[in-house]
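Hey team,

Filing this mostly as a record. A colleague (T.K.) asked me to run one chain through the structure pipeline before their review meeting, and I want the input and output archived in the tracker in case anyone asks later how it was produced. No errors, nothing strange. Just documentation.

Input sequence:
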Amino acid sequence: MYDYFLLSVRTLSHRKARTFLTLMGVIIGIMAVVSMISVGSGMKATLKEQLQSLGSDKIIITPKFSYGTKAGQLNDDDSRAIGKLSGVAFVSPLFSVSTSVEFGGQEKNIVIFGIDPEKAENTFGNTGGYSLLQGRWLGKGDQSKVVIGYGIHDDLFSRKVNVGNTIKIRGKTFEVVGIFQKTGDRIKDYTLYTDINQLRELVGAKNAVTMIIVKAQKGVNIEDVKIRIDDLIKKRKESSKNYFVATQKEIFEKASVVFKIVQVVFGGLAAISLIVGAIGISNTMIMNVTERVREIGIIKAIGASDSQVMKIFMADAVVVGFTGGVIGVALGYATSRVINMAASVYLGNDVLKTTVSPALAAFALIFAVVIGAIAGLYPAYRASKLNPVDSLRS
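Output structure:
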């Protein structure tokens, strides 16, 4: 087989322009497949990272949304009832709202999370994205205090917001007591945290709760705790279907299904360009057969079998597929790195990390070789069936 591939390399090198154009079709297709699938893989990996940073011992309870509105409502009574369940270490109710914040004569609309100040560090401490850059966490008895994300501190307003500065939320003055380190996640970096009761009083939300974070006790099976919460929601609410109760593992598994669909769609779109490349290979091989009719006649006249002639032309197609695949994988990897850098600059460091795994690179290369072989099958078969006498006369 080595001789066949060596002959193919020599033959293809004699027709440089045509070979280059044929290769480009395969290169672009493989590059698109690798880079697009890497984006889907990166999105999945980033989500996993963020969920793991929340903690594997936590359970999230939120109302579901239906047609843009909440299908259910949570309140402080729900939070207290969950806190009494067996296996629950602590419960942290949160209330979120998007409203205007004033600083230095400027007003910006941002997301504010209300939380029990006494539970703030226990809820978010030692989790990804919640390390302090300056100041301290909210603590017991904190009134009119806030902790802000890095983006609010750094570039939301025309001048930096530092610890000790005051801001206004709906006309009420709050002191900044802490600033989180930069995460690269725009949601975290541009969110403000304050006392839940004060925030609800400002917006007239009474005892409303947007989300409940439950931490399971050490050594307790988190799935058992989740089942108890599910049962409680069923007893307390008219329809438990309007509420989402999930562990970090379940959230990741459900989101993974979505990302798999994204990868298939991305890969399918990229594969279209690879099909165009395959048509180019087939076209080039047919032209090779047409141009080498006399050569084929001589080869067959001196004793070459149909299968040997077929192998010669199949080798041409496989060489094109393999070469295009190698270059395409390399360029796909380079493209994924460029996407990484662009995402880092425009979205933040940890928002999207594209990943090109060895398995993805191997799949793309094998795919390119198979596509090349399939594209070269008909031209090779056509060459093998040429009559040597007719070929020599042409």
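Quick notes for T.K.: The mean pLDDT is 81. The two ends are 29 Å apart (CA to CA).
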